[in-house]
Amino acid sequence: MQYAGQRLVITLITLWAIATLTFFMMRAVPGGPFDAEKDLPPAVRANLEARYHLDWPVWRQYLDYLYRTAVWDLGPSFTYPNRTVNDIVAEGFRVSAALGALAIAVALVLGIGVGVVAALHHGRWLDRAAMFAATLGISIPNFILSGLLIYVFAFRLRWLPAGLWGKPEQAVMPTLALAALPTAVIARLVRANMLEVLRQDFITVCHAKGLSPGRVVFVHALRSAVLPVITYLGPLAAGVLTGSFVVENIFAIPGLGKYFVQSVTNRDYTVIMGVTMFYSVLLVVANALVDLAYRLVDPRIRL
Known about the structure:
Elements: H1 2-28, H2 42-51, H3 58-70, H4 85-120, H5 125-139, H6 142-156, H7 172-198, H8 201-208, H9 213-225, H10 227-250, H11 256-266, H12 269-297
């Protein structure tokens, strides 16, 4: 209970700091949400600013923003009439979450599998090939990889559609583009820790007891080797979801990334701050769940 209380206080302070920085950074950038309208009459501009409370003093806007965030009323959108930020987040995140979940699942399965194979064949061609592929996965940005996938599989081979969302085949290329980097990172983490674990005394004892090689590797060694992967899961979830902003635009996927990119272009304050806070909450919660997962994987760890 004491740990949970401390973690809750830290979480609230972190979210308050993110909300405050986001609010004042948005106000510090020159321009406003209605500057794109060149011929907007002053009276109309004044009415719009009054409607969205932009004519209030900054301190009053800030307190109103904190209150709305606390009750999760993210306000109306400046760009999309008659739509609230809550509606936009709810609509777009369903697609982004589905794409992100697919990418994380692929990254975990491929990354752990490749890392184990590389460690068991340390110094041989399988190990070198796996690490070469992992280096490429880390080095190539997802927007470059997206373009390559579209060129090869959509234009040259014509195996997959170039974009949109809704059919299984439309999810293949964006999932691979998002999963490449985390797959490479997980593979390197698992390989490095697997090599260290396989040299420890308890593995020698397992072999001495006559346990099968598969049981030693996948039950005893892998359980210790995946602890760094669990640490990486919190930032991974946020990284995949925020990385999907670019990928969603490239593949014309109607996710939250599309709204966020457009809101930055249109200076839609409420959408920018609402989406930022939404992802901040996801990241903080994911990191808290990672800490709790340590205890389940390794009972020796105390919170």
